[in-house]
Amino acid sequence: MPDMSNSSKVSTPLPTREGQGGGSKPIISLSPHVHGGDSVQKNMYGVCIALVPALIASLYFFGLGSAIVLATSVAACVFFEWAITRFILGREKLTICDGSAMLTGLLLGFNLPSNLPIWIIIIGALVAIGIGKLTFGGLGTNPFNPALVGRVFLLISFPVQMTSWPVSGQMGYVDVETAATPLAIMKTAIKTGDASLLNDLPSSLDMLLGQTGGSLGEISALCLLIGCIYMLVRKIITWHIPVSILCTVFVLAGLFHLIDPSYANPVQVILSGGLMLGACFMATDYVTSPMTGKGQLIYGVAIGVLTVLIRDFGSYPEGMSFAILIMNGFTPLINTYVKPKRFGEVKK
Amino acid sequence: MNVILIAVIVLGGIGLVAALILFLAGKKFAVHEDERIAKVAEVLPQANCGGCGFPGCSGFAGACVKAADKGSLEGLLCPVGGQAVMEQVADILGMKAEASAPKVAVVRCNGTCESRPRVAEFDGAQSCKVQQMLGSGETACAFGCLGCGDCVAACQFDAIRMNPETGLPEVDEEKCTACGACSKACPRGIIEIRLKGLKNRRVVVLCNNKDKGAQTRKACSVGCIACQKCVKVCKFEAITVDANLAHIDAEKCKLCRKCEDECPQHAIQAFNFPPRKPKAEEAQSPTSPTPNPSPVREGE
Amino acid sequence: MKTFHIGGVHPAENKLSAASPIKVAAIPKQAVFSMFQHIGAPAVPVVKKGDEVKVGTLLGEAGKGLSVPVFSSVSGKVSKVDAVLDSSGTRRMAVVVDVEGDEWLETIDRSDKLVTMKDLGNITSEEVVNRIKAAGIVGMGGATFPTGVKLMPPPGTKAEAIIVNAVECEPYLTADHRLMLEKPEQILVGVQLIKHAVNCPKAFIGIEMNKPDAIKLLTDLLKEKATQYPGIEVVPLKVKYPQGGEKQLIDAVIGRQVPAPPALPINVGAIVQNVGTVYAIYEAVTKRKPLIERIITVTGKSVKQPSNFLARIGTPMQQLIDEAGGLPEDTGKIIGGGPMMGRALMSLEVPVTKGSSGLLLMTEKESRRGEVSPCIRCGKCVSACPMGLEPYLLASYTRLKDWDGCEKNDVTSCIECGSCAFTCPSNRPLLDNIRVAKQTVMGIIKARHMESISKK
User: Fold this and answer.
1) Nearest CB to C344 within list A28, A36, A290
2) C117-287: which CATH topology?
3) Which of A325, B79, C219, C335 is the least crowded, having the fewest Cβ atoms under 10 Å away?
């Protein structure tokens, strides 16, 4: 069977035979004859809409800087998607309209500090789209979340620029003060074993609203939650991944906190860093997450465990992106071994 | 110095233990393969093309040995190596090679876009098997080519291509190895693996329609209507009509081309003959409802 | 609210003809009776060209094995016995009758009077089943499985619940809905007959919540005449496709799941009958009327008067469309059945058969499938599949021709409901490919079975 799709078929003009329906030929196809109307675009732009609250929050807290970062990131991602598919892969079909490149750009931007130089952002976009996505064939075939590939590449290549976050509330773009993020404080507290350091953490409410340092999109957990609920209501994602990640992190961090108070309390752990962004938007990426509900639960729990372990025992303060990337790698395995419950299946 | 020594001892130790495990595992899990399989595989082309219908050359070698144990190599042919290789294989296995004349795939449908108008439009996965589930498909002929190219996809040798003008697949005789993959892929059994014939010349009924004549005529202007004229004109009893469809036995056919002239539907066509004398051509063309595509298809 | 437990989708209902009462369609000038109106072996024609037939005359007797007889729904002269194009798109054996007048066999009771169980006296279970078999009744929801066979549970099984399928989960179709509104008591008597035939005390009528009038009518009737119709219960169900699938309905109504094939519903103690079949059973047993007419919905967004017809079997579809206001200009697709599982027809010459539940005309624009894009692995097909399968996986195995993989992933359990392709955001023809796989794997299994038999 050739490409079993019904798209491009060379149809030669034929002498029409007088048939029914005003001379036109009836269309024949196998059932179903109706479609639910869902489309890739709807899903991709749906996620983009869900990111709007967080976008507004980032504009509010970081001002012009965030606007420049996001605009650069989105524009670069869309441009690279177009340029690479058109000139290197030689595909005629335009893929930038499906919204996936734009989404990657937005998510990549959300993972960057607001004062990142533009050239670094462009490199990040090139890696995200070029290596993270199109090397593997484009949308649907990439094993790892492209935005995260871009971010982790930048994090490892430009650690200084990537980890000096302006304090939120500063509207300027250059020459900003940088402050320790909640994650950095937590890390120091664990390393030194000094629980009193945790008193420097912003209050949970501040972290929920976004009065804290960090990457563009990750500061306001509340806005991200609103977006997540929007996606759940629109049925763009299911509850499995966000809930399992958040619950696992909460339980595990709570456990550590109870054993040793120099570990931050679980509420602050959940609200800090990229956890909310990762759980709601990055881990739920269709392409790189498992297909079945059961598989998604396993995936989510594993991400939660890995995140807490990396945060508490690893050398980086943030573990979310690494955890997601690692589990992206396990997704095919989960898909192979975790099957949905078949109808009428008897438990053995 | 000490560090180096420790390293050498540790690594050497690991190496020894691993070697021991490997040795034991090799003994324990050794698979005894028939020696003949390796021998047969050696003479095969090792192209692993799958043209024989088995997964790679070693798969074919295994099948040969199995068949030899049963007593016959019939039906097994390496299309790439051909007769010569099969003789070698037979030698190794102590068998006699089956004499096989070269064969080629023939698409037994000539229902081009003009001669077989479409009565419906197919919308769905571009696969003949899918269209086959919709009754007669896009045209009114329930036996003709569906045109989605399952045969093209099945061919390992790039020997069959869709002609966008006619909407029919065409076989490249040079490349075709008669492996039969296309024939199996066709849900309507249109493609016949046929003797290549003397000097590659063949006379073939290019139709697969088993409907009654009147219905065939409605669906296609070049379909076999089972009028029996070819049967009557054939002196060698090479043509039979079965289930409203004429068939020419390639072994009996003496390539006289009488049936070709006789067929009112131009369903019988001759391949690879030198161009006819002008007289015959004149007599043929005016009655023809469709400008006959050149029967000589080689070298396209 | 009860419903089935795995997967499901919710297509736009579009029940355009729900409010239009059943109209009696005109008798056609020529009627075509296919010998292949059911699953199993075809019927064998017993008439020849020139024979005079009446309404109710046997045209084809049941073939060997699984089969049912075919009766004439018109009176007139047999004009030919030949292969004719039918709704499957292929030519198959059929009897064509040129209609003259409308003469019925005298054995058929044509009155409208309700016949109750009491009127039937001491009818035996065997007699009920025999009358059903003799009337050529098949499942009228579209599956066309011979009903008589279903009512004879194999040894070792026992019917514990009769489930009447009045779900009509297919969008557009309203034939069953109208039937319930217009012939409620006849249906209840029909249910009693089935209960009697298989000696089962309990019956459920499963109706989706989008037919509140039918639910109310039947519930009230059962309350009013509780002593006359004991052991029958109306079960309102949440609207979800494919609730009308036999397995899904059993799960929804009595909460039992039928295991994978070869298990049958009767293995979990259930017998499912479509409400149209129940009505046909009533008519066959009480009025001695063979299956010669059925209710068919003719509908579509561009159809002038979406209607429900009581049509004689063998009536050409063209005539029904004419009666519903003619074929709209921009018709792109003609579907026999509903939009989710119906068959696209190539010609309007095809006749109404025992399984024709509807005729749906779609506009050119509605008919075309959307552009296919790559799978984005969203998993929506997996969560939509009511059988708990992985359509994306089966479709890609099909492309790789990995029939072994398809078999291991239970492709044969697929009920071809179309939920996967319906829900796919990339418009991928998932079910097309799965059908290919299912067909191929079934062939492989059969070949293997034959081989194992020949070895023994």
Assistant:
1) A28
2) Rossmann fold (3.40.50)
3) C219
Torsion of CA C351, C433, C169, C161, to 10 degrees: 100
Peptide bond into C201 cis (omega under 30): no
Where in chain C are the domains? 117-287, 380-455
CA-derived radius of gyration, chain C: 22
Mark whether A80 and A155 lie in a shared domain.
yes
Residue with tokens 């290789």: B85
Strand partners, C146: C138
Do B244 and B165 lie in one domain? The reply is: yes
Helix (H, G, I), strand (E, B) or coil at A65: helix
The answer to whether residue C428 neighbours chain A at the CB level (below 8 Å) is yes
SS (H, E, C) C54-69: CECCEEEECCCCCCCC
- DSSP assignment of A27-51: EE-PSP-------HHHHHHHHHHHT
Q: Which residue of B has its CA nearest to A20?
A: B119
Contacts of A296 in chain C (CB under 8 A): 379
Angle made by CA atoms A34, A38, A43, in degrees to the nearest 5: 170
Residues in chain B closer than 8 A to C34 (CB atoms): none
Q: Report the SS3 class of residue C125.
A: helix
Chain B residues closer than 8 Å to A19 by CB: 119
Complex prediction ipTM = 0.87
Q: Do A5 and B125 touch (CB under 8 A)?
A: yes
On whether both B67 and B131 belong to a single domain, the answer is no
pTM: 0.86
The answer on pLDDT for A173 being more than 60 is: no
- Sign for the CA dihedral angle at A115, A117, A118, A123 comes to negative
Q: Is the CB of A2 inside 8 Å of chain C's CB atoms?
A: no
Asked if A39 has any chain C CB less than 8 Å from its own CB, the reply is yes
Residue the block writes with tokens 């010609």: C347
- Residues spanned by the domain of A288: 190-214+239-337
* Max Cα distance, chain C (Å): 64
Alpha-carbon gap, residue C423 to C380, rounded angstroms: 7
A149: amino acid identity, one letter? V
A with C: how many residue pairs have Cβ under 8 Å apart?
194
Judged against a pLDDT cut of 80, whether residue A178 lies above it is answered with: no
Report the C-alpha gap between C427 and C253 in whole angstroms: 32
Asked if the C-beta of B153 comes within 8 angstroms of chain C's C-beta atoms, the answer is no
Judge whether residue B197 has pLDDT over 90: no
CB contacts < 8 A, A to B, total: 65
Q: In what order do the strands lie in the sheet with C44-45?
A: C44-45, C58-61, C70-71
What integer best gives the mean pLDDT of chain A?
85
What residues make up the domain containing B209?
103-284
Closest of A94, A83, A74 to residue A130, by C-alpha: A83
Q: In chain C, which stretches have pLDDT less than 70?
A: none
Average pLDDT for chain B: 83
B109 and B68 belong to one structural domain: no
- Same domain membership, residue B120 and residue B77: no
Does residue A233 form part of some domain? no
CATH number where B214 lies: 3.30.70.20
Residue A183 lies in a domain: no
Domain identity same for A298 and A209? yes
| Min distance B121 CA to chain C CA atoms (Å) | 9
Kindly give, in sequence order, each residue whose CB lies less than 8 Å from that of residue C348, ignoring residues fewer than 6 positions away.
A20, C316, C317, C318, C321, C327, C334
Q: What is the DSSP string of C361-379?
A: EEEHHHHSPPPP-------
Whether residue C260 contacts residue A342, with contact meaning beta carbons closer than 8 Å, is answered with: yes
Tell me whether C437 touches chain A (CB under 8 Å): no
Neighbours of B (≥3 Cβ pairs closer than 8 A)?
A, C
Residues C67, B11: Cα–Cα separation, whole Å = 76
- Tally the domains of chain A: 2
